[in-house]
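@channel anyone free to eyeball this complex?
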Amino acid sequence: MTDLWRSDRVVRLAPVAAVACSALLPLVQVGLAFSYVGNDVGTGLWSLAATALYLPPHLRHIWYVARARRPPLAGWSLAGMTAVIVGATPLAGNSWPRAYTALGVSFLLVLPAPWSYLGYVAVVAAAAPVAHALGLSWAAAPWLTFSVLAGSAALLLLVWPAAALTRLRTAREVLAQRAVMQERRRIDDDLRHGLGSALESIAARGDRAASKVANGDPAAAAEELTGLAEESRRTLAEARRRVRGYRRPSLRTELETAADLLTAAGVATRLDLPRGGIPDTLAPQARGALRATVTRLLRAGPAGTCTITATVADGQVRLHVRAGDTTETIEVRA
Amino acid sequence: MIRVLIAEDMHMIRSALVALLSMEDDMEVVAEVERGDEVLAAALRVRPDVAVLDIDMPGLDGLSAAEQLSGRLPDCRTLVLTGLSQPGNLLRALKVHVRGFIVKDAPAQTLTDGIRRIARGERVIDPELVAAALETGSSPLTARETEVLRAAASGIRTAQIATQISLSQATVRNYLSNAISKVGGRNRIDAIRISRDAGWL
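replying in thread with the prediction:
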């Protein structure tokens, strides 16, 4: 349960982390626009203004996609963002093409394939020539391309897993709901066909007893009520059997508990299980036989020892319950 | 004649049990008490052959009372009346030498037969209870974790638990955290509920 809570927290925090990192990169870019070689206060201010315009729609794309949702009117916000980044290119300094990182990421997040890939490749390919045209040397321009590639990869590695986590959680919830529905249907069928008819019979017997009392036949009414009490007990036992059928502990848990119960009852019990493991499930007949044996040993009292050995031969698992001189063998069919 | 002590906190049920056992020729109810912490004193006074104890009683629960009886009056055999809702109690009952463990909704005949068999030295355990106990499994908690969770179940704060069982508060928190994780609870209250339902506390 704690693990589930932790994973739930990770799912909730992952989009926040993706948005925070996506905001950090453009802010570094603005700093460079003020201070990088060939830039001045003017380019810095243009960079600041353009970033203030394109960053909100970009973060909006990240926020929605990281939560596995498509942002509403995403085409329009992407168009606006593209216009701002492309429009600011001649004004915001030679390091501005680094902002193409955000554009490339938004292309991949918003546009459908193959347009998203084409847009991304075009943006990455344009970064170096544009930077060179703005005054960056050919020696430095390829590094800018690398910066766009690495930056976009880092952001996508934050966004896509966050979206995958959200989808996984949603899928898990859907599966859990389906399982609950199936189980409810099964229980409903069980109750209607099994216990339902037994309870109807009890009600009918009650009615018959009441009418016999009303007709002044107490002996017949008493007989009917005695039958009703017996049937009620049988129904209660049946209800318990059914409830037990819904809870199926593993064979290992059942054997360990049996050993604990017997030891607590004064029957020193050893459990020998094969190294290769034992099946998780136990057929109802084998389960019943094991329980009957444990009950018999518990009733027998605090004397002697008991060894429960599980063996696997030819794919067949057998339980050997040895108490005193007698050994009982139970075939386990999973 | 089998001398029987009855401990049951609900007056109507206690009276019904006394009336039921008084109808048997070979049984005599020699004492009836309504609190778990009165069981030992009454048993030492009247020396019954069999003590029939309800599992939930004020003052002291039936299993703790059985433990006291086993230590101070080993000749007195105990039979505990329980519900199927707390199957883990069977393990604890066997550890404190309870000879009989019968569900409360069993027919009256089962109780009288059970008392006779226990008096003869046999052990009486309802197969339904064994099945329920095997399904529930043993308690995943260590003795210390059980002790800390039981103290928390009484409603006292961590600092008081630490003082009560001579541990630091950090250690108590650690034990509580382990217990919550082991029983699959969402928090302390949930862990107490799960453990109580299973009969592990």
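from a first look: Chain B has two domains: 2-136, 143-198.
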